[in-house]
Design brief:
Oligomer: single chain
Number of strands: 5
Helix content: 40-55%
Strand order of the largest sheet: 2-1-5-4-3
CATH class: Alpha Beta
Number of domains: 1
Order of helices and strands: HHHHHHEEHEEEH
Length: 180
């Protein structure tokens, strides 16, 4: 829960406290076999890099996925054009693929928290017969976190200031999804 507080308070981990990294979480060989992205993070596969991993052909609809650089440029433009604070694109497991965040926010934490919130919400709403989550909007004292699934395998998270209009935030989320 502390990582969610840091997202909204825009604070960083205090000096001297241990913070596990993504590399530490994916250090076992079992994870390397299950998650190709872990190979990239661990430097185990020299043929994988963020550029070619994200450029592989997207089978559904035959579209070519954007590269990590393209996604980061897209996030930067959407954030700036709409008066937002930041955005992250992650996979369904919570691993960040691209981000544009203010300093002090950890993309790993935002991605992991957003994927977890979406997965739990999706599970509980599915159990209650409401179907799949279309979006989750969280209003905090100082702003918003809007989370939405995209193309069945991605999670888009957008951070916005309190004065932002929810319609603008949702429009920004949909524009990111369309361009993936």
């Amino acid at each position: 829960m502390n990582f969610i507080k840091r997202i909204f308070n825009n604070s960083t981990t205090k000096k001297g406290t241990e913070k596990s990294s993504l590399k530490e979480n994916f250090s076992s060989e079992e994870h390397l076999q299950t998650y190709p992205v872990a190979e990239l993070l661990m430097g185990k596969n020299s043929e994988l890099n963020g550029e070619n991993l994200l450029s592989q052909k997207y089978e559904e609809g035959g579209e070519i996925m954007a590269t990590a650089k393209d996604m980061e440029k897209l996030l930067a433009q959407v954030v700036k054009d709409n008066g937002l604070e930041g955005a992250v694109i992650a996979d369904a497991e919570g691993l960040p693929l691209a981000s544009y965040l203010p300093s002090g926010l950890d993309e790993d934490e935002v991605a992991a928290a957003s994927a977890a919130i979406l997965a739990i919400s999706d599970s509980k709403l599915g159990d209650s017969g409401k179907g799949k989550v279309v979006q989750a909007s969280i209003e905090a004292e100082k702003g918003y976190l809007v989370i939405a699934p995209a193309k069945g395998e991605y999670v888009i998270s957008v951070l916005a200031p309190k004065e932002a209009k929810l319609g603008i935030i949702l429009s920004a989320v949909r524009s990111i999804e369309k361009k993936l």
